[in-house]
Amino acid sequence: MKLTDFNYELPEELIAQHPYDKRDEARLMVLNRQEQSINHKVFKDVIDYLEPGDCLVINNTKVIPARLYGIKDKTGAKVEFLLLKQMDNDIWEVMVRPGKKLLPGTKVMFGDGILTAEILEMLEGGNRKVKFTYQGIFNEILDKIGLMPLPPYIKETLKEKDKYQTVYAKYVGSSAAPTAGLHFTEELLEKIRKKGVEVANVTLHVGIGTFRPVKVENIEDHKMHSEHFYIKQEDVEKINNAKKNGKRVIAVGTTSCRVLESIADENGYVKVQEGDTSIFIYPGYKFKCIDALITNFHLPESTLIMLVSALAGREYIMKAYEEAVKERYKFFSFGDAMIIY
Q: Does the pLDDT of residue 131 top 80, yes or no?
């Protein structure tokens, strides 16, 4: 299957530059796979497509304010860091810019010196291994001086950090938000629970690799990035109960989907697990666990549009995307959503 099979034309003005004022008033495209239909709703109507006994699975990862601006201690030259992965206590893998002169031994200061980093070594792909020094609590310092790591297609400044965070974000560790979850409000989740729908959690820390383009023409040759996940016993039970009772498992976002499909057995049952997943889902994949998916609109030729095409069929998805462009839906992280069931 070719990379160009997943391309579509997207006018730049349809790339959402800021979040909705009211999260659940984004638009919702409804795709019924059996009927091959396309309908247009508002996100809060998603409750109409959930049934008592279903299990809605959300990713409760929390985005860290991972973008830091600092200066080199000797020259005062400006430097940008993007925290990617915690390797040990105060040791992180970071993306740096500009990269050429940040050699091992270089020190960088952030926030008037409340945070200092020393470059320890160069890593594959130009990233750096760095050690941070500070007084106090690292995450509190990040909250004070760090910025949200918005994707490169968002050019506008985000005024409120929590707008790039789900209302149920709990465990710190992501370099990007699980954006399908941004549409939920606490009130909508409460209504969903009152309807008899179970809400289960997984935790997958989203890496910056989620924005990495596919560069091979034959998609099967693409090497998928790896991301860390875990799932707890109480959540396993909710998912397995839905399966046992013939009800549906509905993943909120491709991140929740990837966790479930990574850990499910042939019958779709899951168990407590922690690890890394580099699962790559594209057309031809047979889903084991999920029955439906709530997701945003994804970049052309991305692994995420391939995943939704695996679930709904490539032609149907490309037709839906064409319709979304025609109907002036907003795309990507702060954009509109779809439910595929």
A: yes
